[in-house]
Amino acid sequence: MQDVTTEKKEFTPNIVAFCCNWCSYAGADLAGSSRLTYPANVKIIRVPCSCRVNPMFILKAFQQGADGVILCGCHPGDCHYVTGNYYTRRRIALLYSFLNYMGIEKERTRLEWVSAAEGARFSAVMNDFVKTVTELGENKRLTDLRVKEGE
Amino acid sequence: MKDVELKMIERAKELLASGEVARVIGWKKGEFYFDPVPASFETVEELDSLVYNYFCGANLSKYLIEMSKKEGKTAVFLKPCDTYSFNQLVKEHRIKRENVYVIAVECLAKLDINKIKAQGVTGVTDVEVVDKQVKVTSLYGEVVLNKPDVVLEKCSVCQKTHQVKDEEIILHERPERDVNRFAQVAELEAMTEDECFAFWRNQLSKCIRCNACRNVCPACSCVKCVFDNPASGIAAKANDDKFEEQLFHIIRAFHVAGRCTDCGECSRVCPQNIPLHLLNRKFIKDIDSFYGEYQAGETAEGKTPLTEYTEGDTEPNDVFKGEAK
Ligand code: SF4
Ligand code: SF4
Hints:
heterodimer, A: alpha/beta, Rossmann fold, four-stranded parallel β-sheet, 5 helices, about 40% helix, about 15% strand, globular, B: five-stranded mixed β-sheet, three-stranded antiparallel β-sheet, binds iron/sulfur cluster
């Protein structure tokens, strides 16, 4: 058995993925049933629509120790609720740009459109995002110190 | 400015006396000459204490949310920048337009008492401005200061004109100005992520969470603010760690995105002198460049950038630093 108390482990980032119920979550499902892999450190949070994601969710994820946050929704034009993801696109464009302006590394935030048929793409996107964030290292800028205490 | 003040008092008295309005919102003397405070006047006698001077930077629009719900009309004095906030609040159905009588007053830029004090001048008792010269009378004598050095930040880049008026009081001609309000934002954008972070960390860690910026902001008019919700986990008053400050400012700036008129009140009232306008202007600049120029409060109708879209909008992954990757 591995001894977890000694030797600090290699850095594996905590990734939060907000996935819309209708496309991206189904895409993740398809990836699973097609036996395609994506890293286990991606924690999926299912939301009814990408536009349900309040900027506060994203900040909260970072606060609670996420090293990267990715938001996935239906491709523009394919939203289950017709226009939800168009609003997402505007909001998130402004939010990500703003976070970067405050000095948050741009690689830590991402938005990808993944349809229910794109299991392979879902897996590729997640693998790529995890790789990017792993290279970037730990999130130190948008974290709540109290969360990491005693680690 | 004294002539404008007299004219304002005279007109307000007429309106009250004739019963056309039930109250007048303006400014009255504060503790000192340089801190006039917003006030509501309900009788002709009270109006003798109305003041209008170079320190009346306070935006009166937000008070109309409550005042316009009252019985009878409310007359209000609005400077050019205040009229944008007014329009925005009408657009958001927060002010009952039909209950307000707007008197547009000239502005000619307001002064920042902190900048005057920084020049070593204290005990200010009177100010007159002639062209680019500010003649300050204080308890210790008279000094002449250079106007661009002592105006409020919001006034130094102002190009606004009155967007609403039922009548106006304008006795002097307004000088032309040619300025770029996004210059500082662009400077920050050109910095590296590390530098940006260091800059904001340094600025925001000064924040004492007094909430003055939120309370003064005409765009922040929610009855129940998310920061007042104890269940949100983010309601802490004081900055208990670096994240709190960032979260508050990021969320506040986001909540007013597309609605902030750049009235400059937040920066004006911050006791810690945090350049909050640089947060809001980043959103304004991005909105302008991604979705076309937009000035909140220019009209009281129409759509807003975050409540509309086009099929070919910029992709979030491509927008960093305001330019495609
Ligand atoms: S955020 Fe500041 S500049 Fe914008 S409307 Fe509010 S007080 Fe005015
Ligand atoms: S006014 Fe200044 S110190 Fe007060 S909460 Fe706002 S930024 Fe912080």
